[in-house]
Amino acid sequence: MATRSQAVTRTLRNGVLSGEYPGGARMNEIDLATSLGVSRTPIRGALSTLAAEGLLDYTPNSGYVVRSYSSKDIAAIYEVRCSLESLSARLAAEKGLTDEARGLMHRVLADSAKLVDEHQWTEEIRTQWTQLNEQFHSIIHQAADNAYLGSLIRKSREVPIIAHIKFQWFEAEYLMRAYQDHVEIADAIFNRQASRAEALQREHVYQAGRRLVQQWKKVEAKKIDKVARTRPAAA
DSSP letter string over the chain? Predict the structure, then answer.
């Protein structure tokens, strides 16, 4: 069972990711404590956690402000990731997988198939899929055997907002599509089809980015609507 502090942190995190607390909004401890019906202690801890996650900016003597990310930022991040991830898949196919990596890839796909067979998207499945997805792509990155490329990929994947919203709006249908993409990418790599692996991985990452951009535009629209509703009416 989640503690009071964990529940408050989750509520505030979801508020930031949904646009309830839009980019640039000041996170006032007293106001938040009042609105959530809790003391300032769990609020203070939650704000510190969200700042560590990169969702809030902290300025001494000023407090916490929601960090701003635009749909344009997300599109730019995925534009870079498309190139990096597709190159990684190409190199992995050209160099081939070790027997150990091939076996691990098969196990990851088999475990992923079990999740798809559940035909639902729950918090538990989300957690498991996140781990399997990371394993799948990690196998490719390692097989590419290029330390510089690996470093750039890690940097592109560590942007705070991406880590949190990547599967924020997933559902069972998206899970099946992502799994099918993985199957095809793996098949291309297994068969040393470098160009095919590169193209499949590029499209896979592009589609993931496009989905996030579309959803984040909805968050931005909510922010605009909220500002409009709170603006004083003209005399």
Answer: ---HHHHHHHHHHHHHHHTSS-TT-EE-HHHHHHHHTS-HHHHHHHHHHHHHTTSEEEETTTEEEEPP--HHHHHHHHHHHHHHHHHHHHHHHHH---HHHHHHHHHHHHHHHHHHTT----HHHHHHHHHHHHHHHHHHHHHHT-HHHHHHHHHHH--HHHHHHTTTT--HHHHHHHHHHHHHHHHHHHTT-HHHHHHHHHHHHHHHHHHHHHHHHHHHHHHHHHHHHHSPPP-
